[in-house]
Amino acid sequence: MSEVRPVPLNLRNSRILPIRFEYYEPTSLDEALELLDKLGEEAKVLAGGTDLIVKMKMRALEPKHLINLKRIPNLNYIVSDSESIRIGALTTWSDLEKSDIVKNELPALYDAVKAMGSLQIRNMATLGGNICNASPAADSAPPLLVYDAKVKVVSKQGVRVIPLTEFFLGPGVTALRSNEVLTEVVIDKHNVSVGSAFVKISRVATDLAIASAAVMIKLKDGILEDVKIALGSVAPTPVRAKSLEAALVGRPAKLEEVKQYLNLLEKDIKPIDDVRGTAWYRREVSKVLVYDAFLKALNRLGGCSL
Ligand SMILES: Cc1cc2nc3c(=O)[nH]c(=O)nc-3n(C[C@H](O)[C@H](O)[C@H](O)COP(=O)(O)OP(=O)(O)OC[C@H]3O[C@@H](n4cnc5c(N)ncnc54)[C@H](O)[C@@H]3O)c2cc1C
């Protein structure tokens, strides 16, 4: 019989939070920013808690102060005007799922919503939390990267608007300063196309991605006029596949063309072995996912050509 070894305390997602912390519930953004400024690096903001509380239970994080953002009004919205689509940081995945704007105007993000977690997780988890947690596997990242999204971050010192391509710095590391709150995701409508899609492969339906891919294409007379490709779980951060994008722009919008250049993906990704999959598997499946996302995106533009 194989030996049953005890799981080390710091690897257990137990029901007990084994640390002491001060808890705050600001009711305005100003109040939250004031607290963050005063409490510094020892403070963490809490949104849905579906990443943060898990990390605290596993003692991967031990903040001395927890600042819950959920009582701050006006950070949960999805609005679309002639120029842009703006999504508040506290918008939950369930809110995204119910939104006609997301469904009709941002199909790749909508695909990601449908592939994310369970209903319970989608009800609690926020878009801002998914971005700030900065997992290479974050499902919102590839769609937002192909839409060239920007994030608005606010502190007592002012506002910064950061392109998402510059926001992710490493696993769990972002350009966010300790006194800043992400308040909004902004997507310029020029960067959006109905010809966009996201696909993901995971061990079970509610798991993080082994690998994921999003594609956004614009066509002119059957030619790929604009191509954006992004992948998740195949590098230290979610990444754009710039080499493949560059090869495909100006080529006929045919799957045979896409297939011919897929090996270029290897220039843009750096997969690793972990509990979810091997580097080799990730490298190979990335090509299939990008191919599938292209097929889905082309179909959304009115039909694909082999
Ligand atoms: C069972 C389970 C299944 C999951 N499945 C998936 C999945 O399929 N796909 C996927 O992508 N993720 C998945 N996740 C991870 C998680 O649910 C998401 O990343 C979620 O969107 C995190 O949002 P949250 O509001 O819960 O963030 P929190 O846990 O509250 O915060 C996460 C991090 O972001 C920071 N933060 C949060 N909001 C802000 C803000 N506005 N400004 C600055 N910092 C902020 C927090 O300080 C913390 O460091 C899963 C988690 C669990 C437990």
UniProtKB/TrEMBL annotation:
GO MF annotation: an example: FAD binding
Annotated InterPro entries: CO_DH_flav_C, CO_DH_flav_C_dom_sf, Diverse_Substr_Oxidored, FAD-bd_PCMH, FAD-bd_PCMH-like_sf, FAD-bd_PCMH_sub1, FAD-bd_PCMH_sub2, Mopterin_DH_FAD-bd
One Pfam family matching this protein: FAD_binding_5
The UniProt record lists the keyword Oxidoreductase: yes
Entry superkingdom: Archaea
Keyword terms: FAD, Flavoprotein, Oxidoreductase
PANTHER family, alphabetized: XANTHINE DEHYDROGENASE FAD-BINDING SUBUNIT XDHB-RELATED, XANTHINE DEHYDROGENASE SUBUNIT C-RELATED
Protein name: Carbon monoxide dehydrogenase
Source organism of the structure: Zestosphaera tikiterensis
